């Protein structure tokens, strides 16, 4: 039996945001931008809850396979995993190797119902001069907004980043490749266009919130120096040698 740690305000915020209207999500995102210290405190509180309450030996970092009622998400993940190595177009192109998909949040024990869109869509390993793990989520109609995706990513980061938890995840998911001083990138893979003006506005607000979060957490002494970058990726054109292109990076 896997111990389930107490629900945190950050995870509750993410779960609530999924049900909000687009306009309500925009208002909430603007509130965070006006008071970024609130988001930082919710994140640190979630991180501390896992650090203080969870025994990594009682957690199971598991990738689940099975039925998927979001065909667009499945198709994108199938494309990401098909070639083994994903090339990303940037000023200096980079690559990453997907390792597992549909990784359950560590807040969920074995034998419990699999939470829908609760954990990570994929984890990967950067092909780089230093070991860097990747936590990734993808956009599709059922997880439509970048704002919700961002909240989901940082919630999973808070639950994964405590040293003992990250060491256990390294062993289970990265097979020890992250080493003694692990670094993590967060990746949001978005659709290539948002036809509605409100969607485009929320997309820009999410970028601004990612910048504010990154700046704030970089100065937070309670959180370890594990976060390297937060990146937003888009599908590359069909005739491109790359699979994805970099939209922004903070």
Task: Round the mean pLDDT to the nearest integer and report it.
Answer: 84
Major sheet, described briefly? 7 strands, mixed, barrel
Q: Summarize the helix and strand pattern as letters.
A: HHHHEEEEHHEHEE
Q: Any idea what the shape is?
A: globular
Number of strands: 7
The termini sit apart by 39 Å
Strand percent estimate = 15-25%
Q: SS-based structural class?
A: alpha/beta
The DSSP helix count reads 7
Low-confidence stretches: none
Structural domain count:
1
Radius of gyration using CA atoms only: 17 Å
Describe this protein's structure.
It is a single chain. This protein is α/β, with parallel strands linked by helices and 250 residues long. The protein has one domain. 40% of the residues lie in helices and 20% in strands. It has a 7-stranded mixed barrel. Strand 3 and strand 4 form a beta hairpin. The longest helix is centred in the last third of the chain and has 22 residues. The chain is globular. The chain starts with 8 loop residues before the first helix and ends with a strand. The mean pLDDT is 84.
SSE diagram, text form:
Layout: H1 9-17, H2 22-34, H3 36-53, H4 71-82, E1 86-89, E2 94-103, E3 120-127, E4 132-138, H5 146-160, H6 163-174, E5 183-189, H7 197-218, E6 227-235, E7 244-249
Parallel strand pairs: 1-7, 4-5, 5-6
Antiparallel strand pairs: 1-2, 2-3, 3-4, 6-7
């Amino acid at each position: 039996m896997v111990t389930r740690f107490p629900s945190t305000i950050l995870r509750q915020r993410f779960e609530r945001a999924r049900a909000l209207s687009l306009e309500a999500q925009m208002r909430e995102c603007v509130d965070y931008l006006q008071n970024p210290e609130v988001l930082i405190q919710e994140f640190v509180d979630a991180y501390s809850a896992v650090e203080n309450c969870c025994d990594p030996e009682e957690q199971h970092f598991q990738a689940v396979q099975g039925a998927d009622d979001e065909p667009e998400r499945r198709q994108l993940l199938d494309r990401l995993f098909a070639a083994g190595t994903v090339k990303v177009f940037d000023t200096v192109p980079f690559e990453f190797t997907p390792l597992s998909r549909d990784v359950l949040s560590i807040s969920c024990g074995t034998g419990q119902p699999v939470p829908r869109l609760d954990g990570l869509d994929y984890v990967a390993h950067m092909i780089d001069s230093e070991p860097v793990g990747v936590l990734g989520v993808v956009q599709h109609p059922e997880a439509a907004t970048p704002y919700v995706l961002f909240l989901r990513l940082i919630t999973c980061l808070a639950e994964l980043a405590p040293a003992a938890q990250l060491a256990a995840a390294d062993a289970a998911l990265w097979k020890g490749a992250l080493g003694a001083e692990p670094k993590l990138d967060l990746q949001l893979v978005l659709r290539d266009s948002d036809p509605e003006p409100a969607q485009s506005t929320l997309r820009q607000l999410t970028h601004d919130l990612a910048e504010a979060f990154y700046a704030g957490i970089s100065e937070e002494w309670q959180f370890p120096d594990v976060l390297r970058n937060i990146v937003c990726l888009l599908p590359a054109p069909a005739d491109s040698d790359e699979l994805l292109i970099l939209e922004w990076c903070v």
